[in-house]
Fold:
Amino acid sequence: MSAKDRYNITMTRHASFSTSHFFNQDMAEAYDQRNSGLKPISDSLHFLMALLLKDLPRDARALCVGVGTGAEILSLAKAFPDWTFVGVDPSAEMLSVGRHRLEQARVLDRCELIHGYADAVTETGFDVVVTLLVAHFIKRDDRPAFYAALHDRLKSGGRLVSAEISCDLEGAEFPAMLEDWKSIQTLMGATPESLGKLEDMLRSVLGVVPPSETEAMWQAAGFPLPVPFFQAFMIRGWHAARR
Ligand SMILES: C[S@@+](CC[C@H](N)C(=O)[O-])C[C@H]1O[C@@H](n2cnc3c(N)ncnc32)[C@H](O)[C@@H]1O
Structure:
């Protein structure tokens, strides 16, 4: 079975885990308000991403995987007025909120929104693929196929930009990083009860892997040199170019 077939099957199997459970109607409606406490972090991530991508063609075409409520499209559309976008997400509820935000920002006419996983995007040859705060929702075993799907949708020389929760859960620094992470979660409205479950969430529910493992998976997918460009507590970002 090819990596892509495996991705299609496992992503379907995990749909209830990643979309129905987390990104349901309630989450979609609350997402932007909940994330507003993180604005300094997402602003910084988006600012650095735009710097990384400033030399792409003026009319670049971008694929945003796990586009959710459209944050990265809104930011890139402002920085690059001639870019066009394909956004894909398995949560119809998140996409619906995103569609509304993009319409309000008058950028919807530059966007195509697709309900599904990366494999639902039949177009290839993108100048850039962006996937922000998505990869940790994908189990470790399914990650190689996820990155391969992103790789295959880029043109030669096209760029991947990705940020995810990334941490060595067995590392000596993990307990301290967990405490730091709790302060972020508190800003996002976590209760003492949910903070108590945070470690289990990182270990058992999400697919958090150490940074070195993400880099190795990018290389296995065909990106010769993953370059780290961002870290805010447990959120780390990399960029790379397709050969
Ligand atoms: C935390 S949100 C991030 C949304 C947006 N990228 C942002 O930065 O605000 C994660 C999104 O990833 C989507 N998602 C979850 N599993 C996915 C998968 N396997 N492939 C693509 N998207 C996925 C969810 O539906 C959700 O909209």
Summary: Residues 1-17 have pLDDT under 50 and may be disordered. The pocket of S-adenosylmethionine is lined by residues 11, 18-19, 23, 65-68, 71-72, 89-91, 94, 117-118, 132-134, 137-138 (CB under 6 Å). Strands lie at 61-65, 84-89, 111-115, 126-132, 154-165, 227-232, 235-241. DSSP finds eleven helices and seven strands in the chain.
